[in-house]
Design brief:
Elements (H helix, E strand, L loop, with lengths): L2 E12 L6 E12 L3 E5 L6 H8 L7 E6 L2 E2 L5 H11 E4 L11 H11 L4 H14 L15 H13 L5 E5 L7 H17 L3 E5 L3 H4 L4 E6 L2 E7 L4 H15 L5
Parallel strand pairs: 3-8, 3-9, 6-7, 7-8
Antiparallel strand pairs: 1-2, 1-4, 4-5, 9-10
Helix pairs in contact: 3-5
Bound molecules: adenosine-5'-diphosphate (ADP).
Length: about 250
C-alpha cells in the first residue's frame, strides 16, 4: 500500500505564554491510499484540531503533514487553497450549503471556481445527480429540501471534483438512522469502487463501524487503534468496548 497522508510529529499549541494549551501532542501516523479511517475520542480530545491540520485548514505549531508526498505545512495560503480545491473534498456536519444558490449551483460551485468547461460540468453533474438521486431538486434552494437531501447535496459537492481524499466531520450528526445508513453505504461505495481515501471524525459507534480502521485520540495523544477484520457488527462491539476503556464522559 502507498502512503497517502503522513502526519509527522505534529503538535498544536493554542494561546500564548500563561494560557498556552496543547491540543495535539506530538502525533505521528500514516494513512494509505484507499483507506477508510475514523477518528474517535472524548470531547476536547483534539479530533477537530487534527482533522483541520490534515485537511489544510489549520497549520501545526510543530511538525509536518505530507499529502501525496507534498509538505502542505510549507505551502502559502494561495497554493493551499488551490491544492484544497483540486485534491480534497469536505463534508461538514452543517453542510455549509449557500442559501442564495440553487442546488445545482451549490454542487457545481467547485468546478465553476476552477473555470472548468461548461459541457464537462453538465456531464459530471448529470452523473452525480443520478447516483445520489438529486435530479428532481436541482432547481430548488437549500431551504426548500429535507435534511437528508441537503446531506446528499453536500456529498455531491464534495466529490464532483473527484478528489483523491475526502474529509468528513461528524457527517451523520444531523441525520436520522435511515439517512445515516444510506450516506454510510454511499461513502463505502465511493471508497471501494473509486478508491477514494476517506477520513471521518465521529463520536457515533454505528457511524464509525463503517470504517476499516479507527484511531482513538485522548488528551491530544493516540490512545489506541483498532482495525476491522471481521463483520461490521463485531467491529461495532469493539468500538463500544474501546469507548468504555477510553472514558472521558460524552464522546
Ligand atoms: P474535539 O474535536 O476532540 O472535541 P478539539 O480539537 O475541538 O477537540 O479541541 C481540543 C482542545 O483544544 C480543547 O481543549 C479545546 O478547548 C482546545 N481548542 C480548540 N480550538 C481552540 C482554539 N481556536 N483556541 C484555543 N483552544 C482551542
Amino acid at each position: 500500500m502507498m502512503t497517502f497522508i503522513e502526519v509527522d510529529h505534529v503538535k498544536k499549541i493554542y494561546g500564548m505564554k500563561f494560557n498556552r494549551s496543547t491540543a495535539i501532542d506530538n502525533i505521528s501516523f500514516v494513512i494509505d491510499s484507499g483507506e477508510f479511517v475514523g477518528i474517535m475520542g472524548p470531547s476536547g480530545a483534539g479530533k477537530t484540531t487534527l482533522l483541520n491540520m490534515m485537511s489544510t485548514i489549520d497549520k501545526p505549531t510543530f511538525g509536518h503533514v505530507r499529502i501525496d508526498n507534498q509538505d502542505i505545512t510549507q505551502y502559502n495560503e494561495k497554493k493551499l487553497s488551490e491544492f484544497r480545491r483540486q485534491q480534497l473534498g469536505f463534508i461538514f456536519q452543517d453542510f455549509n450549503l449557500l442559501n442564495s444558490l440553487t442546488i445545482k449551483e451549490n454542487i457545481i460551485l467547485p468546478l465553476a471556481l476552477d473555470k472548468v468547461n461548461v459541457e464537462i460540468i453538465e456531464a459530471k453533474l448529470a452523473n452525480i445527480a443520478n447516483i445520489l438521486n438529486l435530479n428532481n431538486i436541482l432547481k430548488h434552494f437549500p431551504n426548500e429540501i429535507s435534511i437528508g437531501q441537503q446531506q446528499r447535496v453536500a456529498v455531491a459537492r464534495a466529490i464532483i471534483t473527484a478528489p483523491k481524499m475526502l474529509f468528513a466531520d461528524e457527517p451523520t450528526g444531523s441525520l436520522d438512522s435511515k439517512a445515516a445508513t444510506e450516506l454510510l453505504k454511499y461513502l463505502t461505495d465511493v471508497n471501494e469502487k473509486q478508491k477514494m481515501t476517506l477520513m471521518m471524525v465521529t463520536h457515533d459507534a454505528f457511524t464509525a463501524s463503517y470504517c476499516k480502521r479507527i484511531i482513538f485520540i485522548k488528551d491530544g495523544n493516540i490512545f489506541a487503534e483498532i482495525r476491522r477484520d471481521g463483520s461490521r457488527k463485531e467491529f461495532f462491539q469493539k468500538i463500544i468496548d474501546m469507548q468504555a476503556a477510553i472514558g472521558g464522559g460524552r464522546q
